[in-house]
Amino acid sequence: MMSTMDEIRILDTKDHATDRGHERDTLVIDCDECSQQGTETCDDCMVTFLCGRQPGDAVVIELDEFRALRVIGESGLVPPLRHTVKGSAGI
Q: What 3-state class would DSSP assign to 4?
């Protein structure tokens, strides 16, 4: 199970790309605001498994890679991404 600092946040960085130093059309996956923290969903998160990062580190992937992850999930090869930001209705 992930610690409290190891949530997953997916952020479309088109508006924040220059602030974070990333190229446009990237996603930042950070573990600070996921509503699934500490749940079975968190334990079974495909993004954490595929990206294999250190606790507290953000993971940056290209939008094309994220779309591929979504297709993999939707095809049933891995559990679909079930991320939601705390306090929101969804992504």
A: coil
Domain-located, residue 91: no
- Asked whether residue 79 is assigned to any structural domain, the reply reads no
In a domain, 90, yes or no: no
Place of tokens 């559990």: 79
User: Distance of alpha carbon 9 from its chain centroid, rounded?
Assistant: 5
**pLDDT tens for residues 62-84?**
788 888 877 887 888 876 666 66
How many domains are there within the chain? Answer: 1
CA distance 18 to 3: 29
Q: What pTM was computed for the model?
A: 0.35
Written as six digits, the tokens of 8 are 């997953």
Give mean pLDDT, residues 27-43: 72
Confidence class for position 6, pLDDT limits 50, 70, 90: very low
Domain range holding 14? 9-74
